[in-house]
Amino acid sequence: MSTQITAEDLDAVALGGAFLGTGGGGDPYIGKLMAKAALLEHGPVTLIDAAELPEDALCVPVFMMGAPTVMVEKLPAGTEVLAALAQIKQIMGRKATALVCAEAGGLNSTIPFAVAAVTGLPLLNGDGMGRAFPELQMCSFTMHGVKATPLVLADDKGNAASFTTIDNLWTERLARAATVEMGGAALVAAYPMTGAQAQASLLHGTMTLILEIGRTIQEERRAMRHPGEALRALTGGHKLMRARVADIRRETTGGFVRGTATLRGIDEDAGRSFTVDFQNEFLVARDDTGRVLTTTPDLICALDGDAGLPVTTESLRYGLTLELTGIPADPQWRTEAGLTLAGPGYFGYDHAFAPVEALLSTS
Amino acid sequence: MSTQITAEDLDAVALGGAFLGTGGGGDPYIGKLMAKAALLEHGPVTLIDAAELPEDALCVPVFMMGAPTVMVEKLPAGTEVLAALAQIKQIMGRKATALVCAEAGGLNSTIPFAVAAVTGLPLLNGDGMGRAFPELQMCSFTMHGVKATPLVLADDKGNAASFTTIDNLWTERLARAATVEMGGAALVAAYPMTGAQAQASLLHGTMTLILEIGRTIQEERRAMRHPGEALRALTGGHKLMRARVADIRRETTGGFVRGTATLRGIDEDAGRSFTVDFQNEFLVARDDTGRVLTTTPDLICALDGDAGLPVTTESLRYGLTLELTGIPADPQWRTEAGLTLAGPGYFGYDHAFAPVEALLSTS
C-alpha cells in the first residue's frame, strides 16, 4: 500500500516523530521547516511498504547524528545528506531504490521526507528503532545482521568521512568521533540494504504510526483536550506521572547530551517526586523511592503538561510541566539480542529490564 | 639513480630517521624490527628518485599516525597499511607505482621500506618534511597544493576510515579523531600524487640522508666517539647543549603527547639550565633566561649524552643525559607558507621564527 505524503502532512510527521522520539531524534520545528521546504519545491513523497520492493532493491537509511542541543543551533546546509548519498552510490556502484528512516524523532523522521522529495525516491513505511536511541548500532538492522557500513558522514562545510568496520559498534565509535570533530552534528547515509533485508529487518508501519500520532495531537489540541490520554490509547501506553521540572543536570560530552531531570509531581501526583535520566533520549524514569517506572528499551515519551506538545530533552527547563507516558517497545527490543544492544545494562545500569506494564502493576 | 636497500641497512635507516625525527616519528627499535622482517622475507627495496618516474605515475605516502607513547605499546599487526593501500587503489582506480615516506622518524622512515618490500614497489628518495612534525598537513605536499585525501586510516582490529575534505587541516582533524578512537595509533595511506607532483613537492634525498646519518652514528660509536660532532658536520647543525633531564612533564591528550622537559647543563654547560617543549616532536628549546635557542620549524635533534643514540620524546626520563643539536630546516619551511603551517605561531607561541644560526650568533 503506497501513501502520498504532502507538505501539509509534515506538521503531523514532526509532532508524531518527536513524541515517539522519547525526547531525542532532534527538534521537531527544525525538521518540519527543512522537510516542508523540500516538499513544497519538489512535490509529495510516496510512502511504500518494503514488501513492494524487489528483493535486490537498494534501500538506504538517511539521518542526522549528533547531540540534539547542537542540532538546534547548527542547522544542516541541506546538501550534506545528498553528498553522503552520492558517496554511497559510488561505493555500492548503483543508485538507491528507496530511502529509509533510521529512527523516529522530530528531525530524524522528517529528514528522510526531505531527501525523498529532493531525490524523487520513495520512502519505506518503517524504521530501525520504533523510537529514537542515542547510538547508531541500536537498531533492528543490527539485530538482523545488516552492516552499518559503508557509512558516509557529511558536514555542512563540505567534509565527509566513510568507514568500513568489523562491527556496528565500531562504526558508532568512529562515526561519533568524526561527528564531534565536525562540530557535534553531521548527516549520514548508512546501512545500505537489499529489499529482502529491509523486508526482514524493518520495524514496519512506523511512518504511518508517526503520522497518526501527530494527527491525534493536532486533533486533541484543536478540541482543547490534552492529547496524553488519546496517545496512550493509540500506542498501548501507560501514564507515568504529571510533574514539574524542579532541577535539570545536563552536559554535552563525547557527542551526546547526558543528564538527569528531577521532577515534582503535580495534580494527581502532587507530593511525589521523580527522576528521569537521559542520553539524548529518555532512558529510565524512577519515583522518589528509587523504584523504576519505565526503563530502556521501553519508551518514555514526554508531552508538555499544559500545551500537550512533545518535549525533547534539550528543551527541558526549570518549571516546565510534563506528562510522561511509558510505552512498550517493539517485541524485538525485549529479546536478549535487543536488550544486549539497548537494555539497561548497556547504559551502565544495575537493574534488569522489566516491561513497563509489569513495573506499573507491582505498585 | 636507484639504490638497493637491504635488511642490513635498516639499522642505519632506523637510527638516522630517529635522529632527523626530532624526538618524534616513532620508536626506532620497533620500526627496525618491522621492516627487517619484511625485507628478510621479501628481499631488498629499490630507492629511486622522483625524476625517474613517469609524470602520471601514482605515488602514495604511507605512515603511522598517533601518539608515539602509544606506538611503543601498541604494535601494528602488519596488515593495516596494506588494507589502507588497497582502499586507495579502489578509490583511485589504479595501483600505486611507487611509495613515499611522509616524514623522517624511527618508525615512519622504516614503515615505507616494510611496505615496499611486501608490495614490491619502489620507494622514492625523499619525504614530505625532512624531519618529523606532529600533524599531517605539515608537509611540503600541502605547500605544493597536493590534497591529503583520499586518505585511508586502518587499525589493527580491521577497521578503516576514509575522508574527503575541504582542506588538509580538516583531514588532520578528522583523521586524528579517528586515530584516537582506534586506540591512539593507526596506519595511513594518503596524499596520493602523480609523478609530476612528487617531483615538484618532495624534499629530495631525505632517505639517503637518513641512511648516511645512521651510518655515521654506527661508525662513530664503533670508533668509541660520541657521534654529535660528526652529525653536525653532516647536517649543518649547531650544538645547543649537553644536559641532564631534571624534570619531565608529559600528557597524552587529543592524540598527541605534549610536554616540557627541564634540563640541567653538564660538562661545558654545567651551571646553566634549559627547557625543551614538545608535541610528539621537539618544538622549542630555551635557556634559563627564556631566550629561544632553536624553534620550530628548525630541527631540535636529541642524542643520548653518553651512548650517542637518538632519543625520542617518549623515552625522556629523569636523569637521562642529552646532547641537543639545532639544525636548519629545509628552506621551504622558512618561507611564509612553511611558517604558516608549522612555525611558532601555529603552535601558539608568541615568538617569531628566527633561524637557529641567527639565534645562536646573538648571544
TrEMBL record, chains A, B:
Residues 167-356 form the S-Me-THD-like C-terminal domain. InterPro entries: S-Me-THD-like_C, S-Me-THD_C_sf, S-Me-THD_N, S-Me-THD_N_sf. Pfam families: S-Me-THD_C (PF20906), S-Me-THD_N (PF06032). Residues 8-164 form the S-Me-THD N-terminal domain. Transmembrane segments: none annotated. It comes from the Bacteria. This is DUF917 domain-containing protein. It comes from Pseudoroseicyclus aestuarii.
